[in-house]
Amino acid sequence: MASFCIPEGYDDGQYNGLLSSCVLSIAEVGNSDTSLDCVLEVMRQSTDFFDYYLGDSSHEVFVPTLYKLAGHRLDKLERRPEIIEWFREVLNFSIEHVAEAKAVDNTIAASVICDLIDLQAVELLPEINALFDTEMVDLCHCGRRSEVLDDIVNPDYSGRLDDCILYIHQRFDDLQRKFDRR
Question: Does the global pTM surpass 0.90?
């Protein structure tokens, strides 16, 4: 695995979008196999690396990029039972350990719930209710229980990917506006 370092004095106070720009460009001009490998390698780096190069922008950078590079491989219907069982295991672990806030905290629990909204995982409503019963779910992140349950069973819910910006110029401009400190 490649290891990246943070150069001393590299940040001059302006938006440092070098890595973001590279990942955005790979999504536009790369091929799905080798480019996906490069993006996944970047995603394997340390937390310090992510904090320095991406700050809070990793979702805006990686989700649309991964969708563009690997979206054609996503056949959720074929693997849905496997995905649901994996989430069932995650939920049961979360229910058991969320109060300790060691392996799972309230924000991670809420993030899992957001993914289940996107999947419209009606099969997991009992586990989702049990997780809410722990009172250790970040409601600011995923919403109140009634909203979550409504979003899961509502077939008109479009999911977060529809909110992703897939046009490179708009993606870069938004990142620059968000992080430029001039």
Answer: no
